[in-house]
Amino acid sequence: MSKTIIISNRLPLQIKLEENEINVSPSVGGLATGMKSVHEEGESLWIGWSGLAEEDLNEETKPKVLAEIQKNHCATVPLTENDVDHFYYGFSNKTLWPLFHYFLEYTSFENENWESYKRVNQKFADVVLENAEDGDTIWVHDYQLLLLPQYIKQKKPDTSIGFFLHIPFPSYEVFRTFPWREEVLEGMLGADLIGFHTYDYERHFLSCARRLLHLDTNFNEISYNDRIIKIDSFPMGIDFDKFYNAAREHSKNSETEKSDIQKKLDDHLYASNEAQMILSIDRLDYTKGIPNRIKSFEYFLEKYPEYQQKVRLIMLAVPSRSNVPQYQLLKRETDELVGRINGKFSTVSWTPIWYFYRSLPFDNLIDLYTSCDVAMITPVRDGMNLVAKEYVATRVNQDGVLVLSEMAGAAKEMNEALLINPNNFEDVAKTLKMALEMPKDEQKARISVMQERLKRYTVEKWAQEFFTALNSTKDVINTLVSKKLNTKLTNNILEKYSSAKKRLVFLDYDGTLVGFKNNPLDASPDEELYNLLDSLNAQPNTDVIIISGRDKETFTKWYGDKPYTMITEHGVWLKDKEKDWVALENVKRDWMPKLRPILETFVDRTPGTFIEEKNFSLAWHFRKVDPELATLRSVELKTVLNSLIANHHLSVLEGNKVIEIKSGNVNKGRAASRMLMKDNYDFVFAIGDDWTDEYMFRDLPESAITVKVGLQKTSAKYFVQNTLEVRNLLKKFTETPILSVASK
Ligand code: ADQ
Fold first, then answer.
1. Which residue has the CA at smallest separation from atom 15 of ligand 1?
2. Is 343 exposed, middle or buried (0-12, 13-18, 19+ CB in 10 A)?
3. Domain assignment present for 19
4. What does UniProt give as the signal peptide span (predicted)?
5. pLDDT-derived band of residue 743, with 50, 70 and 90 as boundaries?
């Protein structure tokens, strides 16, 4: 039976080792909770680091730790202190974390750390490969393991791999600064499904894949190697019931059951009718905007002095990555700011900021969530931010106000919060005032809508949705695999080829027989291609036709002295072996001077594009242009052209990075059908790569063998991946013994 493998940097276990005694408890984080049901269902394995470096273990403790890990259906990846330093603190937290959160000034690009990152991702892959079997479903988590999907896919292509990024994916302008950008994108593309918290991160990723790897994207799908990869957004939720129920129980606590923290909070709240508390909780991380928050609170107290002595900011900063220098600096800055502001405003009975720098147990978190009138969650950049969601979930009376930064992924779903730009102190101060003064009815209206949503889309649901999407990618893969020309199908075709009495073979040129060049004139045939075409052409009872959108002058230049049959300009001209060119269609050119100026305006506005004028068509090429600009402009051009060509017997065709306007009904399908009538063919074959070839695939009879080059939607029956595979296939045609030789 196939199983599920979950992989994250850390295992969902807290393992403590004290004097050779082992203490194992489950982690309480969002990810561990969300994946719990998946991990407990059926056969499942969680792979990650235990938190103990190899140097921390000895002969006695290591087997015990491993046994505990195994007991919890987990497997560990052995990491040394050096790995932890360079892979985790180094590359993950000094390169990827700041870069992906737009902190370029904090981002270090050190080769030694990159080497370690690759090595450790490989270590993870080794453990996965020891455990994975064909058919297994594998879910890889987060920025520490960006290369892992590819490492697994290369060795175990028949597993289905999902990847989820918990932090933002930056925009192209930021990501392009990264020295190992291609490797990282390719690493992620080893997955069959790539998930992000928001559509913006998804969009940034698609844009980077297009611009940096020059991959084709179709809505949210990417064709890469012989696979279709789906990119989607799955906003992570929380364990709503856990927070809601804890808050409900908390409200029943008697005075003696209250924690010390709760008693302190109560002291402030009960001191006066006007006392209010503002909550701030995060890991102490520069992305969370802690200094900005403190400063804007200071600005608020100055701007609205009537709130002095009444409002308190309760700030919990959980220690994090404290051996990375920027975190140490942040700690100092935060301490100083709190000290300065408290010094400036404090009175005998009032301190504006209560600051905790520690990790509090869950019950104390609930104390804080339930006691504060306003939560001020103002990261400068945050993938999602679960604290914002947890605050809302604990508001059992549906009171309270959430002030949330637009820069948190959570803002995309929590429209009922008061959304602010954390860099705009004026706006933050005003919004804080609005929050503190918000009528209860309005608080209720806002909180209740958000609670409904959080209750529906929990972390468990998030995990289920991701798995459902991952499973559905299998269907896409299966349909595509069934169409790929594998050895068996190829042999089948060769058998038909060999036993047929009369063969007809249509070959598209660009993108099929030769690869694309930036300038179409550079794509001339090479020696190997001439030899291949000569051999094919010499096959008995076989008509080979090169059928292309090219003009006849270019083909005359390249093949003038060859006895090939050629059709150019999508079916306007035919050259039958040694004969001269004849027009297959009666087409007009009078429209060309009228439309050419329009194309010229597009060339002026889109550097890198150019016009190709053929005998009966005009083509606008945009291969060299930035893909996003190209998409934008080509949509624009098609719209303009389609409005102009009505009633003029012209058509607009979209090829591979080219838009072509040509006369009426001319297309490769029509031309191919004409050629078919010329004899009694019992083997018809057509191969091509772009939209113009689709006419051929559609118009040829059902019995024809049609092959698309590349992984795109097509009416062809089969596909091959690239021009190399095309040539290999055609070479096999020439090597196949012809069984039946009929009279010509
Ligand atoms: P984080 O940056 O850690 O997560 P966040 O989403 O707010 O940020 O999650 C913090 C979690 O830690 C919350 O579940 C919170 O309850 C818990 N927590 C906070 N203080 C605690 C304390 N003192 N003791 C115990 N637990 C505490 C990263 C990304 C986020 C993304 C998450 C999930 O940076 O953007 O939302 O992953 O994908």
1. 387
2. exposed
3. yes
4. none
5. very low
Q: Is 281 in the pocket of ligand 1 (CB under 6 A)?
A: yes
- Give the residue among 494, 500, 511, 477 at the shortest CA–CA distance from 708: 511
Residue 695 located in a structural domain: yes
The answer to whether position 116 is within a domain reads no
pTM above threshold 0.85: no
Q: Is 209 found in the same domain as 289?
A: no
Q: How many domains does the chain have?
A: 4
Q: Rounded distance, CA 621 to CA 523, Å?
A: 14
Residues 594 and 10: their CA atoms lie apart, in Å, by 65
Full residue range of the structural domain in which residue 452 is found: 240-456
Measured in Å, residue 390 CA sits from the centre of ligand 1 at 10
Amino acid symbol at 335: D
Query: In the annotation, is 239 catalytic?
Result: no
Q: Is the CB of 382 under 6 A from ligand 1?
A: yes
643, 663, 683 — which closes off a domain? 663
Pick the last residue of a domain from 203, 233, 263. 233
Q: Is the CB of 387 under 6 A from ligand 1?
A: yes
In a domain, 110, yes or no: no
pLDDT digits (tens, 9 = 90+) for 236-286: 999 999 999 999 999 999 999 999 999 999 998 888 889 999 999 999 999
In angstroms, what is the span from residue 386 Cα to ligand 1's centroid? 6
* 3 state DSSP class of 724: helix
Name the average pLDDT for the chain. Answer: 93
Catalytic position from the list 239, 508, 689, 690: 508
